[in-house]
Amino acid sequence: MIDKAREIALKILYKIDKEQAYSNLVLNEELKNNKINLNEKDVGLISEIVYGVTTWRLTIDEIIKKHSKIKLKKISLWILNILRMGIYQIIFLDKIPKSAAVNESVNLAKRYGHSSSSNFVNAILRKVSKSDYEEFFQINDNIERISKTTSMPEWIIKQLLIYNNYEKVELICKNLNLRPKTTIRINKLKIKKEQLAESLDEKNIEYKNTEYDDFLILDNMKNIENFDLFKNGFFTIQDISAGLSSIMLSPQKGEKVLDACAAPGGKTTYMAEMMQNSGEILAWDIYEHRTKLIRQNADRLGISIIKTEERDATVYDENLNEKFDKILLDVPCLGIGVIRRKPDIKWQRKYEDIKEIAQIQENILSICSRYLKKGGFLVYSTCSIFKEENEDIIYKFLNKNENFEIDKNGIKNIVPDENNDGFFICKIHKK
């Protein structure tokens, strides 16, 4: 008898690899399709295995290499993912007995492999123990040690080492493996903080205050989108680091604001809340399905000042020259600072992507800066932690544009830690 939760987890992992798809999207889709057949415990195990295997893939594959005579690329994708799931449970999940992890993996191999596959899976998993992981900490080469103990590609480690020492890089890589906390932003257009806190207390939902008044951290909150307080628009899910872009821009009531890379609309709607839903925000994205997400978010939150447009921010429009009081450019980036939310980033990005994305970022800043009124403010932000996408872009822009300057206290480099994603934010003033 095959365990249905593990079987669904296997199908998700197979689809992620086969289609180069994002784990969160495939996971949500499969959970929706299997809603009737799954209880909360099943959903928890599926999410744990999918995110766990995706996060620790490099480390797990090294352990497979150690115990398998067959090379990874020769192992069928189904069997490889069954091995990954089994090893993840043995090494990283203390609550699951090794015997259960092995037996369930063997059962899956019988269905998804050839006749000898189950023996192969059984033989490898019986050899695996926690000491396989602990051995990686004895590696002398710093880059290799950090890579195998934190499951981080070496190119990312080398890139971070250009500006940080080994201890700092190791800490960043460890923090990028932590489970992200659920942080919510209170919609003060609809509810006061005290009222929301009371409602959370009534529902026995634990929360912590943060240094920013609009944000709370929720403990162990699952299926938050099904929660009445969320559906009624009393709060939005948003990491504090992401919210800081809007805080630094500080849009005011009645102003005309451009959000040139706006979807899915978290920062856009926060600005509208700060403006007390008075003024105008023009929100752009290239794709229709993404501008639709902005509108859905705005509708749920009771916001009416956001106007969406399908538009490419790298194409100049002279009609918008010096039309905006403030501009937010949360530009496309490699996303290294949010790896714990999207662990697939580690396996889908490569070193060569830096140059390509930096060119896009440079273009967006150069073009959209022309839409800013004299005396106005622009915030440039990324959820990346590479200087090539951040400071390098800003200083290159300032060298070419003497009528712009960095605002006082205008740069924030947020390193991933227990509570925050990695982010870069810079506020620029047009003289």
Provide keyphrases for this structure.
single chain, 431 residues, alpha/beta, N-utilizing Substance Protein B Homolog, Chain A, Rossmann fold, four-stranded antiparallel beta sheet, 48% helix, 16% strand, globular
Outline the secondary-structure elements:
Layout: H1 4-19, H2 23-33, H3 40-55, H4 57-67, H5 77-92, H6 98-112, H7 117-127, H8 130-134, H9 142-150, H10 154-161, H11 166-175, E1 182-186, H12 193-202, E2 207-209, E3 215-218, H13 228-231, E4 235-237, H14 240-249, E5 256-259, H15 266-274, E6 280-285, H16 288-301, E7 306-310, E8 324-330, H17 345-348, H18 353-368, E9 372-382, H19 391-400, E10 404-414, E11 423-430
Parallel strand pairs: 5-6, 5-8, 6-7, 8-9
Antiparallel strand pairs: 1-3, 1-4, 2-3, 9-11, 10-11
Helix pairs in contact: 1-2, 1-3, 1-5, 2-3, 3-5, 4-5, 5-6, 5-7, 6-7, 9-11, 14-15, 18-19
Outline the structure in words.
The protein is globular and about 70 Å long. The chain contains 19 helices and 11 strands. The longest helix has 16 residues. The protein is α/β, with parallel strands linked by helices and 431 residues long. α1 packs across α2, α5 packs antiparallel against α6 and α14 crosses α15. The termini are far apart. The protein has 3 domains: 131 residues, Orthogonal Bundle (N-utilizing Substance Protein B Homolog, Chain A), CATH 1.10.940.10; 37 residues, no CATH class; 191 residues, Rossmann fold (3-Layer(aba) Sandwich), CATH 3.40.50.
